[in-house]
Write a structure and sequence with these properties.
Helix content is 58%, strand content 3%. The chain is mostly helical and 601 residues long. The strands form three sheets. Strands 1-2-3 form a three-stranded antiparallel beta sheet, with no helix packed on it. Strands 4-5 form a two-stranded antiparallel sheet. Mean pLDDT is 78; it is low at 1-7, 234-241, 290-298, 505-518, 529-534 and 566-578.
């Protein structure tokens, strides 16, 4: 018996429509529709595949709603068989040039996607229709299991875990977008299908139990019909054309990308609606960073992506899927391009603050890229500062880590929470017999981050921490307080600056007039450096830099002293001179400072 009202289609009707769409005639009809809606020809193949996915998803869901549980396996199997037998046949009319290539590309995408998309959907809806899942489970842990099973070539177990994760997601649980970039090829294709399914049902989630949803099947069918009409909004959410910016707009955007610090609240308020315009343009530029565009002739695609990341960070723009896009860069293949962008991504995420925390938390918990994970733990500590769940997680990770796993490296993330409960954990680790040299340095740095007062004795290599006592024979032989490190850095900078100035002067008084502009530049630079030293912080007896006015701990970030760190300060970094992140490195390598000696700043 059909539970839907007479005005709603049965799943069999939607399966017939699916057959009509996946034919040469159906593609011709789609071509006419997209042409009328002014969709770029290069996006047709993707738009067509999305329409096929939307229709097939409707078939599966409506079949679950309209079919008794005892018969659902047979119905889902028949839908899968029908979908996998898609055959476009001979094209109904002659196509030439770009249209023929587009038609062939569409067919390749759909026929290549179909088997794995069908596998994923069948297992999701089997779990959902049979209540074979725990609605309170974490779907990301199930997907983690599915990825491991797929890597071990246990395909059946992988699909079972995937199906249960999808059923839980239909009940409203959050699924991390990073799974799209993780695992073997087949697993990633399953995730494309699962993500597309959740996107189709997004406005209807969370679904209730299968019994409850069958009782309101007519309402869901009507919502699915509306989804079909919203096809083009789905296309444009995924494929946003890169608009040609004006010269004035492009200059404004590049100026923002080159800033050494993010926009203040007042500056963002003054931008008004332009803040969103600049943010959206930054996101589109990041998405299309490999596009050839007349506006970016002077840059290669790496520079464009880097500019876009910096702009998003300086705008503190976390709307839409910005955070997911940034994290996707870390999930990409480990080549030089992604390694160069990583530091910019960390910095940008921190500027976005608490808005970035949920996705960053997902990355830390589920990724298998350990180096990126540890760095992102520091980002999580700053973006989740004050969050009980973040502190609990980081303290558990620190406690569980072994010295072989770089336990001391976890201390920096824990200290960046600025939670005083981290102090006894770090002190206890410092007392461990295995702690020497680098490990001790990291732990002492973490204590300084937490503004812990301690006294050192170089002769006995001991550290005296009031309220915890003396820890003997632990001080690294090359230990320097932050005050000493900064003083050494300043002396080295003075020496380098003097050497550069002497080398640049040729001693010919006759050319003095010709070099006036250069002399003025050197003078200004020296005066700026002197002004910076005049405004320097004061250090307490433990070497912790403090504000001369309010005595708060200060942090040296992006070439200046600030009260609250807005970027992860990595280990043992010595800033040699006041220099912007995008300025040439003073070592003369020709690279930007952030990619050279400032890489860990």
């Amino acid at each position: 018996m059909n539970i839907l009202s007479e005005s709603d289609k049965k799943w069999e009707d939607w399966l017939t429509e699916f057959s009509a769409i996946t034919s040469s005639t159906g593609w011709d009809e789609f071509e006419r529709v997209v042409t009328a809606n002014d969709i770029d020809v290069n996006e047709w193949a993707i738009a067509y595949a999305i329409k096929v996915q939307i229709t097939l998803n409707k078939v599966f869901l409506l079949a679950c709603l309209q079919t008794p549980t005892a018969k659902i396996d047979g119905v889902l199997a028949s839908i899968a068989k029908h979908a996998n037998s898609v055959n476009f046949g001979k094209h109904a009319r002659d196509l030439k040039g770009e249209m023929r290539a587009n038609y062939r590309q569409s067919i390749r995408i759909v026929t290549g996607l179909m088997p794995r998309m069908v596998d994923a959907l069948v297992h999701v809806f089997q779990s959902y229709a049979h209540d074979d899942y725990d609605p309170g489970a974490d779907p990301n842990l199930l997907l983690q299991e599915a990825r491991a099973r797929a890597a071990a070539r246990d395909r059946r177990a992988a699909l079972t875990a995937l199906g249960r994760a999808g059923a839980v997601a239909l009940r409203g649980a959050h699924v991390w977008s990073g799974w799209l970039h993780s695992g073997v090829d087949e697993y990633r294709q399953w995730m494309v299908s699962l993500t597309a399914m959740l996107d189709v049902y997004k406005d209807m989630l969370p679904l209730r139990s299968i019994t409850e949803e069958r009782q309101r099947a007519g309402e869901l069918a009507a919502m699915l019909s509306a989804k079909q009409r919203d096809l083009f909004s789905v296309v444009y959410r995924r494929q946003i054309p890169l608009e040609k910016p004006s010269e004035k707009f492009l200059k404004e955007w590049i100026d923002i990308a080159h800033r050494d610090e993010p926009l203040s609240d007042a500056e963002i308020a003054r931008l008004g609606d332009r803040h969103k315009i600049l943010g959206d343009f930054s996101l589109r530029t990041l998405q299309f960073s490999n596009a050839q565009s007349d506006e970016f002739d002077e840059f290669d695609m790496y520079d464009i992506a880097d500019l876009a990341v910096n702009a998003l960070g300086n705008l503190r723009y976390a709307d839409g899927d910005v955070v997911d896009q940034l994290i996707a860069l870390l999930m990409a293949e480990d080549d030089e391009f992604d390694a160069d962008l990583a530091e910019s991504v960390y910095w940008a995420l921190i500027q976005m603050g608490s808005a970035a925390k949920p996705r960053v938390f997902d990355f830390v918990r589920y990724t298998e890229q350990e180096d990126a994970r540890i760095s992102m733990m520091e980002v999580l500590a700053v973006t989740g500062r004050g969050s009980e769940d973040v502190f609990t997680y980081l303290s558990q990770q620190f406690d569980a880590a072994s010295w072989a796993d770089d336990k001391s490296g976890y201390a920096k993330a824990l200290a960046l929470t600025h939670d005083q409960r981290a102090i006894p954990l770090i002190v206890e680790a410092l007392q461990h017999p295995a702690v020497i040299d680098d490990d001790a340095w990291e732990l002492l740095d973490a204590l300084q981050e937490l503004e812990v007062t301690f006294y050192i004795n170089h002769d006995t290599r001991s550290v005296n921490i009031p309220a915890y006592g003396v820890i003997e024979d632990v001080l690294p032989t090359d230990w320097r307080s932050r005050k000493e490190l900064d003083e050494e850095a300043e002396e080295e900078w003075d020496a380098d600056a003097t050497e550069d100035w002497v080398d640049g002067w040729d001693g010919d008084d006759d050319e003095e007039d010709d070099d006036d502009d250069d002399d003025d530049g050197d003078t200004d630079e020296r005066e700026d450096a002197e002004d910076e030293r005049e405004d320097d912080v004061v250090y307490d007896e433990q070497g912790i830099p403090r504000c001369p006015e309010c005595n708060a701990q200060m942090h040296y970030i992006a070439g200046r002293w600030v009260h609250d760190p807005s970027i992860v300060a990595h280990r043992r970094q010595i800033v040699m001179k006041v220099i912007g992140r995008n300025d040439p490195c003073p070592c003369g390598s020709g690279k930007k400072y952030k990619y050279c000696h400032g890489r860990n700043a």
